[in-house]
Structure formats: structure tokens, C-alpha cells
Amino acid sequence: MATSTDQQSGRAGALAPRLPVPFFDLKAQFDGIREDLLDALAGVAESTQYALGPEVEAFEAAFADFVGARHCVGVNSGTSALHLALICAGVGPGDEVITVPMTFIATTWAISYAGANPVFADVDPVSYTMDPRQVERLITRRTKAILPVHLYGQPADLGPLLEIGSRHGIPVIEDAAQAHGAGYEGRGAGTLGLCGCFSFYPGKNLGALGEAGAVVTDDTRVADRLRALRDHAQSKRYHHDELGFNYRMDAIQGAALAVKLRRLDSWTEARRRLASRYLQALGDLPMQPPAEATGRRHVWHLFVALHPKRDLIRQKLEERGVQTALHYPIPVHLQKAYAHLGHRPGDFPVSEQIGRECLSLPLFPEMTAEQQDAVIAAVREVVPEISRARDTIDE
Ligand SMILES: Cc1ncc(COP(=O)(O)O)c(C=O)c1O
């Protein structure tokens, strides 16, 4: 997730000597869909139905169809989606949920909101997603769910994770917050586990005009419970069968998301083209490029390369007008909020290496060839020079 500073600043500084390239550009996206979006918003304003309602239902049906799930339940954020999905998986106080330390912290917030503790499996060094080989030994009597994260837009290795889960009777909940339209062996990310949880935060591949999220599932009973839970756990009006939440999706978000969903396939194709061009143009440089694992369809929410001198590269790119970001510099197990879990540096080496070395380059569907050329030229200028300097120091 980009920081709010990244989102607000939008474009790089005026002193930049070359074509400035923002990390992403929501204004360019808005300009491409202005008429349709404003019409949809006006329709909601006229309707006076502002929370849930027909606009949200229409979006839910369209998104379920898009990912290939039977049900979609719209909520007010990706974090809420994860929280409700975990409750439906039976996660409660004192339980454990296996997840990864290299993620945005909302993944583990949701576990904590359910009263459970995160138990970490490191990510694998190629896909940066949950390493299934680490999972089985972490399972205890208290394990109630496995929560892989489809990091940067690439699905985790769901086959072995589902197999381990089914052998132990433990559901898999997919954190698909960054993976709209991604795929695993031909199936839509989010549809293989008990539930798939999506975020529609504005900078996501499918972003609302504010906060929104959704859970998808094939299980009708789970879907019914999700619908109740997001709306104060009402089975019918003023009948509250369990602890509920106000996690409803706004109508305005449903309407905006429906407009954007119609463009998502073409936006994803643009992301995939840009990523493959970066891979071709930068593949020979001494930095570790991201990779699309066999059998997985990556939707390139983020293009993250690794280099030990990441901070210096970032600074030099900024001087050349190229805005970059970090996803994520501090893995969750080393966050102060989780100090009580007692982890130390060295516990999850792959996640820690990503934290130290990750650098996200600009990649968004509206990015022009000139903008991408400017990034490629700047990276090709900066990285070899900085890498040579490192070799000299190391010697
Ligand atoms: C991996 C991951 N999980 C969960 C979330 C939470 O989504 P939201 O910000 O919509 O609550 C995000 C989004 O920022 C995310 O990137």
C-alpha cells in the first residue's frame, strides 16, 4: 500500500531535471472515466439510498462473477473483510492463525481483532509469498486458519497450502487485497480458500473513491453470516444473533467500483505489459527483479525489486524525478505493536531481506511509454554505478 504522503504528493518535485514520474496517478485514471463515474455518483445522490442497497448489490454480483465465486459481500475496508472472514472460519480468542510477516499490517490486525495470535511462516525467496514448506510444523491444537497473502498481486502457492489445510481440517482464508483478477492454475485468486478478502483502497488495482472491501466465498452459509455480521449481525431488523459490526459498504463506493470494474481487465493487461517491459529492460542489472511463478497469474499491483543499497538508489532516483515507495520496510514480526510475540531480527530472514532491500518502481495502467522510458533510463544510470561502488567497498 502506498503511504498517504505518496498518494497526496502525486508527482515528483519541481527541481527534477527530467520527465517527472509519479509513483502512481489517480488523477489520470479519473480523467479517463470522468463522465461514467460522475453519472454513477449523481445516480446515488438522487437515489437517497446511501448505505448498502441496489448499487452495492449490483457491484457484488459483478465482482463475484469477475473472480468466479458464488457470493460477494461488500464491506467498508479490506481490514473488515479479513476480520469477518476469520470470524466465519471459527477464529476466536486464544486461537492461532498462520500468516506471513511480509505483508501490510492489516493482515495481522484482523487476526488480533478476532482475539487470536498471528503465527508466522516466512515467505519464499522467489514469489515472496507464504512458503508452504514452513507451515505444517507450525500447526497446533489452537490453529484455526491459514492466511496467505497474495503479495504485490501474485497469488501465494495455494495448492500445497489447501492440501495441508484440508489434511488438518483448517480453512484457508486468502488475503487477496492486492490481487484483483490474479490467478492460480486458472482459478481466480480469492476463490480457492473458504473466503477471499479484497481491499478497494484507492490505490489498489480496483480502487474505490474512499474506503471499501469485500469477501468472496462459495459457501452460502458463510455468505449469509457475512451479510449479517457486517450489518450489526441482524438476521432481520433489530434481531441481533451475535456480536455484530458496522462494516457496511457505502452505495457511492458500490457505484464507483462497478464503473471501474468494467475497465479492470484492460488495466490489468496494461500492468502486465509494463511489468514485462521492466523485466526485459532491467533484467541484466545487478538487482533482484520480481518473478511470476509458474502456474500463477500476477497482476502487478506493485513492481518490487531488491538491492542492498536500496536507500541510496531511492534517493538518486528521486533526484532524477522518479518517485518510488517501499513495501514494506519493517516486517510485521519486528513491529512494536507485536513485541509481545517475542520475535527477534533473524527469525524470518527472507521477509527481513525484503524489508531491507525492497524498492517499488512506478507502475500504473495509465503510465505512458515516455514515463516508463524515463524510469528505465534513471534506473540503468543509477544501479550499476551504486553497485560498483558497493563492490569496491566490499573488497
Ligand atoms: C495485503 C493487505 N491486506 C490487507 C489490507 C487492508 O485493506 P484496507 O486498507 O482496505 O483495510 C491491505 C491494504 O492496504 C493490504 O495491502
UniProtKB/TrEMBL annotation:
The keyword RNA-binding does not apply. It comes from the Bacteria. GO terms for molecular function: pyridoxal phosphate binding; transaminase activity. InterPro entries: DegT/StrS_aminotransferase (IPR000653), PyrdxlP-dep_Trfase (IPR015424), PyrdxlP-dep_Trfase_major (IPR015421), PyrdxlP-dep_Trfase_small (IPR015422). Keywords: Aminotransferase, Plasmid, Pyridoxal phosphate, Transferase. The active site is at K204. CDD domains: AHBA_syn. This is dTDP-3-amino-3,6-dideoxy-alpha-D-galactopyranose transaminase. It comes from Tautonia plasticadhaerens.
